[in-house]
Amino acid sequence: MKSVVYPKGTLKKLAFSDSPLSVYEGTVLVGALLDVAKAVPPGSYTLKGKFAYQACNDHACLPPTSVPLTVTVKVVPRNVPLKQVEFDVFQRIQLE
Description:
- By secondary structure, this protein is mostly beta strands.
- Helix content is 4%, strand content 35%.
- It has one domain.
- It starts with a strand and ends in a 6-residue tail after the last helix.
- The mean pLDDT is 91.
């Protein structure tokens, strides 16, 4: 993985903390930029990982937890034209 991009959190004062904490609310968009080695043959690949997070409300935070994450990516030769998908999503992530 070349890089992971998280959105900027919002500083919020919660009842249990003396100082504001950086938090996310609602839908959170996280991006990852992958670097494929030249030796990798074209094809579909399944990547597995986990997304770790900690849920909080104004009074307390739950223990950190994670959920499994599975993503399928397709590797194509350099000369194959690419088709944009989910343009509105990728437009909101600054990967480089």
